[in-house]
Amino acid sequence: MKTRFASLLVLGALVSVSLSAQTKISGTLSCAKPDPMSSIPVDDGNGTVMNLAKVSCTWSKTFDMAGSSTKDGYSVAASEVHHGKSKEHGIHVGTMANGDKYYVHFQGTGDINADHSGTVTGTWSFDGGTGKLKGLTGKGTYKTAAKADGTSTADVQGDFKTP
């Protein structure tokens, strides 16, 4: 009896460890041109521009969380561009195939060319969600490649945990 109880206790501990472990994810977002996009030049003699934009995206390479796959979403971001260097931060609101939502905060830096193409690398973190994603946590990195036409792709990697 003691052996059986000990075996069940060990099994229970292993299950709880595996359920609380971080799950690795990676995917690719394909994003449309920003709409709306507001740019305000700063009269600082250095060509600085402050931007605020909303960008709609779909997952061209999806991943699963809590039994559903990523579908689409949008990001709202503020950026400062100064001498071809960019600093950005924002929030991404994503939707899963089952309708659950997740929330992400992100920040990054990059290089922007005169034709508005360029790359930005940064970090992100989950800030909760709805439905099965309520209490979602996790973090990771991203690399965005922007094209001159305003479209972009973002490769995302990281991990997550649901309660």
Q: What does this molecule look like?
A:
It is a single chain. With 163 residues, the protein is mostly beta strands. The chain has one domain (23-157): SO1590-like (AOC barrel-like, Beta Barrel). The protein contains one helix and ten strands. The protein has one helix spanning 2-20, and strands at residues 23-31, 37-41, 49-61, 64-65, 68-82, 85-96, 101-112, 118-129, 137-146, 152-161. Strands 1-3-5-6-7-8-9-10 form an eight-stranded antiparallel β-barrel.
Entry summary:
The protein has 163 residues and is mostly beta strands.
Record keyword descriptors for this entry.
163 residues, mainly beta, AOC barrel-like, eight-stranded antiparallel beta barrel, disordered N terminus
Proportion of residues in helical segments: 10-25%
The end-to-end distance, rounded to whole angstroms, is 32 Å
Mean pLDDT: 89
- Tally of extended strands? 10
Give the class from helix and strand content and strand pairing.
Answer: mainly beta
Strand order of the largest sheet: 1-3-5-6-7-8-9-10
What is the total number of structural domains?
A: 1
Sheet-strand content, in percent, reads over 45%
SSE topology:
Blueprint: H1 2-20, E1 23-31, E2 37-41, E3 49-61, E4 64-65, E5 68-82, E6 85-96, E7 101-112, E8 118-129, E9 137-146, E10 152-161
Antiparallel strand pairs: 1-3, 1-10, 2-3, 3-5, 4-5, 5-6, 6-7, 7-8, 8-9, 9-10
